């Protein structure tokens, strides 16, 4: 009798599975995202594909696959226009800018997020208002300061202006993220004997990795692609970044489209490498950092 009951229970009707309903809104959402992805990915593919072609092939067969790739463009990029030196200049300048922005911005964000003091709201208002000031409005006074300090055509001549220009964004993003860290953790750290500096290094810095990562990628992109500042503050070959080199290629080697495509492809590679390493932190840092401010 017991076996009959058990067999009846085991062979009883299974619960009906929920059928996924087709939603037209989701279809159009994925369609728009797919089209947008194609418009972003295809130009990059087109550039890399044409970098393995000769200039005549780029002109006559621009949209065909490079089935017989040639490496002469990449050889000429390093031998003829010295891309390696410009690469090193860009990495030094952009990397130093990121480190300075993260260090100074992180300390300022920690103070604004966790220290109660008068004038705090005013400081936030000034920071938000400073985002409305265009960079072109500060070129003349910044250039005069660099001339007075003898920093024109030096690494610091581009690092310092880019650091100052990106600090506001970094402070606001990191302060918003640090404000979401529970107060109880800070009180527990005080009870364990941590001072403010130890607390920042051992607690706030590790917990704010998403905010630091998202800030670093944006600061790196903005400083790496800053052609306007590079043309004004560092216009010598010895300190010329790679974006400035691209401008020279387009003027001196305008007919060599294969070489131009190669230079553009080489310019994008460092950005892709940096993004792949810290991409998992970016979305979390931007979304959670926007909760409070």
TrEMBL record:
PROSITE patterns: ABC_TM1. GO terms for biological process: transmembrane transport. The keyword Transmembrane helix applies. InterPro entries: MetI-like, MetI-like_sf. Belongs to the binding-protein-dependent transport system permease family. It is found in: Cell membrane. Pfam families: BPD_transp_1. Keywords: Cell membrane, Membrane, Transmembrane, Transmembrane helix, Transport. This is Carbohydrate ABC transporter permease. GO terms for cellular component: plasma membrane. It comes from the Bacteria. Residues 87-278 form the ABC transmembrane type-1 domain. It is a multi-pass membrane protein. It comes from Paenibacillus protaetiae. The chain crosses the membrane at residues 27-48, 91-113, 122-143, 155-179, 200-224, 257-278. Its main location: membrane. The keyword Transmembrane applies.
């Amino acid at each position: 009798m017991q076996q009959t009951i058990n067999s009846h229970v085991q062979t009883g009707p299974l619960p009906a599975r929920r059928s996924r309903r087709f939603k037209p809104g989701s279809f159009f959402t994925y369609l728009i995202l797919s089209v947008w992805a194609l418009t972003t990915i295809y130009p990059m593919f087109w550039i890399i594909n044409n970098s393995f072609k000769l200039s005549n092939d780029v002109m006559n067969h621009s949209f065909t696959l490079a089935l017989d790739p040639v490496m002469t463009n990449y050889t000429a990029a390093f031998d003829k226009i010295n891309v390696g030196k410009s690469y090193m200049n860009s990495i030094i300048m952009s990397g130093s800018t990121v480190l300075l922005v993260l260090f100074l911005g992180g300390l300022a964000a920690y103070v604004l997020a966790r220290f109660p003091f008068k004038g705090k709201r005013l400081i936030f208002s000034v920071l938000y208002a400073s985002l409305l000031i265009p960079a072109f409005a500060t070129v003349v006074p910044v250039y005069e300061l660099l001339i007075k300090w003898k920093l024109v055509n030096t690494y610091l001549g581009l690092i310092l202006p880019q650091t100052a220009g990106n600090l506001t964004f970094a402070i606001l993003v990191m302060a918003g993220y640090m404000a979401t860290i529970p107060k109880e953790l800070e009180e527990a750290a005080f009870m364990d004997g941590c001072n403010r500096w130890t607390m920042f290094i051992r607690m706030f810095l590790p917990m704010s990795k998403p905010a630091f990562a998202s800030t670093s990628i944006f600061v790196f992109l903005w400083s790496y692609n800053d052609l306007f500042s590079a043309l004004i503050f560092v216009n010598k070959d010895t300190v010329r970044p790679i974006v400035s080199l691209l401008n020279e290629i387009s003027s001196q080697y305008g007919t060599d489209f294969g070489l131009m495509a190669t230079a553009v492809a080489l310019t994008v590679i460092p950005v892709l490498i940096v993004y792949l390493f810290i991409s998992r932190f970016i979305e979390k840092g931007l979304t959670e950092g926007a909760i409070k401010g």
